[in-house]
UniProtKB/TrEMBL annotation:
Name listed for the protein in its UniProt record: NADP-dependent 3-hydroxy acid dehydrogenase YdfG
Pfam families to which the protein is assigned, alphabetical: adh_short
Transmembrane segments: none
Family: Belongs to the short-chain dehydrogenases/reductases (SDR) family.
GO molecular function, a single term: 3-hydroxypropionate dehydrogenase (NADP+) activity
Transmembrane helix among keywords: no
EC category name: oxidoreductase
Coiled-coil ranges (or none): none
Source taxonomy: Eukaryota, Sar, Stramenopiles, Ochrophyta, PX clade
GO cellular component, one term: endoplasmic reticulum
Organism (species): Tribonema minus
Enzyme Commission number(s) of this protein: 1.1.1.298, 1.1.1.381
Top-level taxon in the UniProt lineage: Eukaryota
């Protein structure tokens, strides 16, 4: 079954982790896929991976920093020129730093706001008018369970994900009647490299989390999600019948408290 045949999908932050899995799932469902992130070598790896698994697929790759509005518009323009109008925009790029605020990692605070908040706004801004003009389109914002409750040492990160929730809910209410749908996905712990570049070892030790390694290494299989689990939630939302709005999906490992 190819439920997304003829559809065009853009995925930000698709050089690994959840974004890679989402791009693979959308391509597997028949969509023409464009991916972006900053690391060219990893984007090339993802393109090769998807094309080896999905017959006839040709993934468009665009090096993009989502904090730069012009680059996100450039990504969408490149996708539209090569593939056609964007039907599905997945704003997935994100960063997370475990850090206590008293440690004043102000650069990390700002980086989270820039990528997680401004990056999502830039993604919305690049596709919204076209979707409204065409009377159809689906914006999927990758939030977090941290967009629903605040976790230790994630004050700023949780703030950014609460922002994603508020922006998405506000947008959804504004576009009612236009044919555009908006979904947030709120994953719990997923086995990715999200905290590999964390540096606040004192905070990590204090709250008992592992940084500098892939999330979930050594964890019980029921205590961590795989990126493909999150991709499945995205696929559910974007393949729902046109009259159905899947506004939010919280998906956590069975044994996460
Ligand atoms: N893993 C988890 O437990 C959870 C993750 N999430 C969310 O899922 C999303 C994906 O994270 P995940 O896959 O886990 O983490 P990864 O670190 O594996 O992936 C993050 C992706 O974002 C990209 N990215 C980061 N900064 C930028 C930027 N400035 N411009 C463009 N792309 C950027 C990275 O690419 P590059 O470095 O090449 O630019 C990479 O492709 C994030 O929004 C995260 O908050 C939500 C809940 C749980
Ligand atoms: C709060 C969390 O750690 C969540 N798994 C996320 O990475 O967003």
């Amino acid at each position: 079954m190819v439920p997304l045949q003829g559809k065009v999908a853009c995925v930000t932050g698709a050089s690994g982790g959840i974004g890679e899995a989402i791009a693979l799932a959308l391509a597997g469902a028949g969509a023409k896929v464009a991916i972006c992130a900053r690391r060219e070598d990893q984007l090339a790896r993802v393109k090769a991976n998807i094309e080896s698994q999905v017959q006839g697929c040709n993934v468009l790759v665009h090096t993009t920093d989502v904090t730069r509005r012009s680059e996100v518009k450039g990504f969408v323009s490149a996708a539209e020129a090569a593939l056609g109008p964007v039907d599905i925009m997945v704003n997935n790029a994100g960063v997370m730093y475990f850090t206590h605020m008293a440690h004043l990692r102000e650069d990390e605070w700002e980086h989270m706001v820039d990528v997680n908040c401004k990056g999502v706004m830039n993604g919305v801004g690049a596709v919204l008018k076209g979707m409204i003009d065409r009377g159809s389109g689906h914006i999927v914002n990758i939030s977090s369970d941290a967009g629903r409750r605040v976790f230790p040492a994630l004050a700023v990160y949780s703030g950014t994900k609460f922002f994603v929730e508020a922006l998405s809910e506000g947008l959804r209410r504004e576009v009612v009647g236009t044919g555009v749908r908006v979904t947030t996905i709120q994953p719990g712990d997923v086995s990715t490299d999200l905290v590999v570049n964390n540096t606040d070892a004192a905070t990590a030790a204090a709250i008992g989390v592992a940084i500098g390694v892939r999330i979930g290494v050594g964890a019980d299989v029921n205590a961590v999600l795989q990126p493909s689990d999150v991709a499945g939630a995205v696929l559910y939302a974007v393949t729902a019948p046109p009259h159905v709005a899947v506004n939010e999906i919280m998906i956590e490992p069975r044994d996460q408290t």
